[in-house]
Amino acid sequence: MRARSGTRARGMPCVVDTGAPRGSIVLVMHTTSYNVEAFLSACQNAGVKAVVASDRCHVLDGVWRWPADSLVIDFYDPVGAAAVIAAQPGLNGHAPVRAVLPVGGEVAALIATLAAERLGLPGNTPAGVASAANKLRAREICAAAAARGEKIRVPRFLSVAFDEVPADVAVKVEKSIGWPCVVKPLLLSGSRGVMRADDPAGLAVALARLHKLLSTPALLKMDDVASRQVLIEKFVKGPEVAVEGLLSDGALRTLALFDKPDPLDGPFFEETIYVTPSRHPAAVQAKVEEAVSAGARALGLRT
Hints:
The chain is an alpha/beta fold.
């Protein structure tokens, strides 16, 4: 059984006092976010002020009903974006910031973490969030934890340059991983660029497709090192599941475990149907939760 993409850091605590003032919540959202209205509604229901920090210009954009004090930030400069959020006049006045929440995406999670750190709010470490967003770094950290005795199973893996000669890469795969294998970009999410290869010919095709994807200027601007690397790992047979949960001081509380009934055996791994409650036996579900908890602990994610 495999859980897609490992453990991701997407959230921060949203704790609201019952007394006044209840404060504000900063929502860090990318221009491609689609569920901001649900978060705005949740903030309203909780009685807290919502402040949106996005790379969309709320003055020109008529799609959303932007709340007052909305901020325009640069997602290609996480440190600078966090500084803009933390320094915004009025945020610590009558409506003190209680939490900075990313609305989808690893870059948003990193910006939210950096801003929370500047504001002295509880949250994960920037290093932990950055590691969770980088597939290779996450594999390396989990492999080290497994070597220390943590209950984490990590497939065999290696990394190569995105423009390395496919024949040379195939030799490395045959020597240390074996077929079939899966190639992945270190960045991106939603299974973009994730492909299965069953032999050297298939690997060459997958690497060519990935080279084209990683050659976009936007990815190079995002991370000029990670965007030029490719993770290759042993294909893991079996059904996939997804876990949604909350970490509170390192303790995992599972909200839902989703089955993916469609076979996800490649060559591509498009997300389709999620079904909950899971039909897997309780013992299997418990092992999944244990593995997710161990992965979060290894990456240093606590909140």
